[in-house]
Write a structure and sequence with these properties.
The chain is an all-alpha fold. 78% of the residues lie in helices and 0% in strands.
C-alpha cells in the first residue's frame, strides 16, 4: 500500500492534476485500502493546520500583498536604481538586490517575483534587455524569498520538525544573501556580454537623498520585523501580525495609496492565496501520516542509507532528490513528503536540524526557477508575455550559480549557524 501511495501521487502529478488533489486522493485511497479507518481523515486534516506557527503563513502572505499594492516596491526600486547608477547590467543588479530585500518581507518566491517583475520587466525591456533574460533573472532572484527571513517555507519546516523558527530565520540570513550574490556573477556577465542596459549620462528624476526619504519607511519594514524577532520582543506569528499592521500603516497613513475598496480586494486575494497554501499543508500532512502508518517512509529512509555508508554520499543523494523534487513540486509539499524520510537519516548522522532546514530550503529555492515546473518562471513569463521555453537558455547559468552557493552552504554549516548561535537562539 505504501508504494501505491507514491505511485498514485506521481501518476496524478504527471497527468496535470492540481497538487492538492494529487496529494489527497492517494492518501484517502491508502487509508481506505489499508483499513486504517476513514474516521481518522478529519482529525488529521485539522491537526495538520492547527499549529500556532502556521498561523504566520496567511499573515505574512497578507503583509506581502499589502506592501505590493501600496507602492513600496516602486519606491525601493527607484532608490536602488539611483544608488547603482547608469551602467551595463545596472537594472540586473537592482533586480537582484530588491528581490532579496523584498523577500525579507513577503517570504514567498512567486509573490516576490510578481511584485518586482511587474515594475522592472517593462523597465528592462526599455533598456534593451531581452525578454527571456529579464524573466529568468527576476524568477531566480525572487526565489531567494523562501530562504531570506522571514520565510514561509522555513515556518513550515519548523512546524514539521519542531525546530525553532526564529533560529531558522536567523540561519537563513547569510545563505540567502550568498544566494543573491551568486546570481550577480552570471547576471552581470551576460548583461555586459550582450550590451544590456544604458551607460548614457543623464539626470535622475530625483536625488539619492530624496529617493531614500521616499523609500525609508519601506526599508524600515525588515528592520522592525527581524529586529523584533532576534531581540526576543515577539514570536514569528506575532511578527507576522506586526508586519500586517505596519504594512497597513504605510499604505493608509504614510503613502495614502490604499482605499477601503483596495484593502477589501487585497483581503480577498490574500485569502485565496492563503487557502491554497493551507489546503496543501493539510493534505500533505495527511499524506505523511498515511505513509508513516503503512511503513513506507521508514523503508525509504533505510533504502537511502543502504546505498552507501559514506555520510557525504548520502548527503549528495538527499540533495539530488530534493533538487529533482523541487523542479516538479512546490516547497511545502516537498517538506511534508520527504522530511519524514529524511528525519531518521538526520538523527542517524547527527546533522543539525537548523542547518539541514536551511540547506533543504535553499535547494528548493533553486527548484522554483528550474524547468520544467518552475512556479517563479510561470509568473515572470506571464508578465513578460513570452513562452516558458524562451527563458531556458538564460536561466541555466543562474541555476548553476545558485547550485554553487548551495555547495558552499552544505560544506560550511557554520555559515548557517553563526547568526542563531550569536543571538542565543540555539
Amino acid at each position: 500500500m505504501g508504494i501505491a501511495l507514491f505511485i498514485g501521487f506521481f501518476a496524478l502529478l504527471i497527468l496535470g492534476v492540481p497538487i492538492a488533489i494529487a496529494i489527497a486522493v492517494p492518501s484517502f485511497l491508502v487509508i481506505w485500502g489499508a483499513d486504517l479507518g476513514t474516521a481518522v481523515i478529519a482529525p488529521n486534516f485539522f491537526s495538520g493546520i492547527a499549529k500556532f506557527p502556521l498561523l504566520a503563513i496567511p499573515l505574512f502572505i497578507l503583509a506581502g500583498f499589502i506592501l505590493e499594492r501600496c507602492g513600496i516596491s516602486q519606491r525601493i526600486i527607484r532608490f536602488a536604481n539611483i544608488l547603482v547608477g547608469r551602467r551595463r547590467g545596472g537594472l540586473a543588479i537592482v533586480a537582484i538586490g530588491v528581490c532579496v530585500f523584498f523577500g525579507g518581507v513577503s517570504g514567498s518566491g512567486p509573490a516576490d517575483s510578481a511584485a518586482i517583475g511587474a515594475i522592472l520587466i517593462p523597465a528592462m525591456f526599455a533598456q534593451g534587455y531581452s525578454k527571456g533574460y529579464s524573466a529568468a533573472l527576476i524568477a531566480a532572484a525572487g526565489s531567494t524569498a523562501i530562504i531570506v527571513p522571514p520565510s514561509i517555507a522555513l515556518i513550515v519546516y519548523g512546524a514539521i520538525t519542531n525546530t525553532s523558527v526564529p533560529a531558522l530565520f536567523a540561519a537563513g540570513a547569510i545563505p540567502g544573501f550568498l544566494a543573491g550574490m551568486s546570481l550577480l556573477i552570471p547576471a552581470i556577465w551576460i548583461a555586459r556580454k550582450r550590451g544590456y542596459g544604458s551607460e548614457q549620462e543623464g539626470e535622475d528624476e530625483i536625488s539619492l537623498k530624496d529617493s531614500f526619504i521616499e523609500a525609508f519607511w519601506g526599508l524600515l519594514a525588515p528592520v522592525i520585523i527581524l529586529g523584533g524577532l532576534y531581540g526576543g520582543i515577539f514570536t514569528p506569528t506575532e511578527a507576522a501580525v506586526v508586519a500586517v499592521f505596519y504594512s497597513l500603516f504605510l499604505g493608509v497613513v504614510i503613502y495614502r495609496t490604499l482605499s477601503f475598496k483596495r484593502i477589501y480586494e487585497i483581503l480577498v486575494d490574500a485569502s485565496e492565496a492563503s487557502a491554497i497554501v493551507m489546503l496543501i499543508v493539510a493534505f500533505a500532512g495527511l499524506f505523511s501520516w498515511a505513509g508513516s502508518t503503512v511503513g513506507i517512509l521508514d523503508s525509504l529512509a533505510g533504502l537511502v542509507m543502504g546505498i552507501s555508508s559514506n555520510e557525504w554520499v548520502v548527503l549528495f543523494i538527499i540533495n539530488l532528490l530534493i533538487f529533482v523534487g523541487g523542479m516538479l513540486i512546490d516547497a511545502i509539499s516537498i517538506f511534508y513528503i520527504f522530511l519524514p524520510i529524511f528525519l531518521p537519516i538526520m538523527a542517524h548522522y547527527g546533522w543539525d536540524p537548523v542547518w539541514f532546514g536551511v540547506m533543504m530550503t535553499l535547494n528548493l529555492a533553486i527548484g522554483q526557477f528550474t524547468p520544467p515546473v518552475a512556479v517563479n518562471l510561470y509568473v515572470t513569463t506571464q508578465l513578460a508575455d513570452i513562452r516558458l521555453e524562451e527563458t531556458f537558455k538564460a536561466v541555466w547559468p543562474m541555476v548553476i550559480a545558485m547550485l554553487v552557493a548551495l555547495v558552499v552552504v552544505v560544506i560550511f554549516p557554520s555559515l548557517s549557524l553563526f547568526i542563531p548561535q550569536f543571538f542565543g537562539l540555539m
